[in-house]
Amino acid sequence: MAESAPAFKTQMVQKSVQELVLNGDELPENYIHKDRDGGDLDVPLVEIPVVNLGLLKSLSISKEELQKLRSALSTWGCIQLINHGMTPSFLDEVREVTKQFFALPMEEKQKYSRDAESADGIEGYGNDKILSEKQILNGTERLHITLNPEQRKLKFWPENPKVFRDILNDYTIKLSMVIEIILTAMARSLDLEDNCFLDQYGKEGKMNAGFNYYPKCPRPDLVIGIEEHTDAAAITFLLQDNEVEGLQFQKDNQWFKVPIIPEALLIIVGDQAEIMSNGIFKSPVHRVVTNSERERISLAVFFLPGFNEEIGPIDRLVDESRPRLYKKVKNYVSIYFENYKQRKRPIEAVKI
Ligand SMILES: O=C(O)CCC(=O)C(=O)O
Ligand SMILES: [Fe+2]
After folding, report:
1. What pLDDT digit, counting tens, does each position of 169-211 carry?
2. Is the beta carbon of 232 within 6 A of some atom in ligand 1?
3. Does ligand 1 have an atom closer than 6 angstroms to the CB of 208?
4. Strand order in the sheet with 254-257
5. What is the ipTM of this complex?
6. Of the bound ligands, which one is closest to the alpha carbon of residue 140?
7. Beta bridge partners of 80
8. DSSP-assigned letters across all residues of 148-199
């Protein structure tokens, strides 16, 4: 969700749910969902299609796999990607450093806190920024870092655990290879030129990592992990906790839980891919519910087109039967946050 929020003032990081629980404090008003619920854990399971990356990248690319990709991205807006070149043990290492970081004492984590002063104060460790008085806070702690080598701000990259930086560097290299194959396959699945999506993602495309930690929550009926949202990215690669569920997708006003496939990466369509595909691919509404028994982690990597890149519906996807649905936009992320803050669905703001 919170891929990058340039130019928002950050208030001081307030006490996290974890601290409140440890101290035995009452949950403050702004964590409580009065008008809605914290989310039911017991909802039906969504069968998300499993797509094999090996079959998408071969020269004699499998028509069947492309069809599966197209149909999944235009209904649920996501796939479970397997055979992506990362071993299950490597993915476990990524999960492990994430868990180890969040398990550190608060003073240690706060060495990487978001800067209250910096204009692009999204990067770093913290919990929800307070953007408006009406806001309901999420029961999560986060660490946001930019992965692109030339744009990294190492002061936000944990040195503890010791292997954190090396593993994240490896993960960045591996994901950069996968994103090219996915964006190319997405184009092929719609019978477009291979580079259509890649060109809009641009050379300055950003990879922002959002590490999420959801502590055990005493009142999962009242506190949401991450409230319902769509992602502002073109595409999100989500590494889920390998044991604890919590992610849910909304379809036809009903919530469905996402199953865990430990060796898979969950690929989610973001608003910008919905815009580029002229609404064919769907950016799904999703949320995370909390749990009183077990903590949970996840790592979302958001692929964002360069902020100077103009994105918009690909011409070949616009015709009489499918008129242009979205305007061309630059820096969609700032439009996203402006609307998100007012509790509006951001993509509506760029509809024609
Ligand atoms: O924790 C998860 O499974 C999802 C997180 C998410 O939706 C986000 O960070 O945008
Ligand atoms: Fe999300």
Report:
1. 999 999 999 999 999 999 999 999 999 999 999 888 999 999 9
2. no
3. no
4. 224-229, 286-289, 247-251, 254-257
5. 0.99
6. 1
7. 50, 266
8. SGGG--GGGS--SSTTHHHHHHHHHHHHHHHHHHHHHHHHHHTT--TTHHHH
